[in-house]
Amino acid sequence: MHHAYITNNDGDTLRTVKNLGWLLRNWQRVERFTVQPVGEPTGLWQAHLTAHLRDGREYHTDFASAEQLADWLNRPVFRGLYVNCFGFAITIENNDTYRRFATAQGRV
Questions:
Q1: Residue 56: which domain range?
Q2: Which runs of consecutive H residues, i.e. helices, occur in 26-91?
Q3: Where does the pLDDT of residue 2 fall: very low under 50, low under 70, confident under 90, or very high at 90 and above?
Q4: How far is residue 95's CA from residue 45's CA, in Å, rounded to a whole number?
């Protein structure tokens, strides 16, 4: 079953959270993001988001597609934050986030 969760500095799960609402309510704590592929390209979840928090904890969740994730991250509160996207460094800027994700995935 898919769920969002928070880990400590050692990677141990501290608790599960209901959904992305937790991350939106705690946006001030986010330092940077990492996006990685999940399993096979035909699987249900295709992109894993890690939000690295300023206190060393991490928020984790999966998305059905990198495009969906890019759309979700494209929020004013996250603009200017660094994202390690599939091994490529990008920043969240205006409406250009999807193009940057697609480029990082080799789709453009």
A1: 4-104
A2: 66-73
A3: low
A4: 23
Helix axis angle, 66-73 relative to 97-104, nearest 10°? 150
- pTM for the model stands at 0.84
Q: What is the DSSP letter of 91?
A: E
The C-alpha torsion from 49 through 13 and 26 to 98, rounded to 10°, is 0
Give 18-22 contacts, CB < 8 A, sequence gap 24+. Answer: 20/61, 20/72, 22/59
Number of domains in the chain: 1
Q: What is the pLDDT of residues 7-45, one digit of tens each?
A: 998 888 889 898 899 999 999 999 999 998 887 655 555
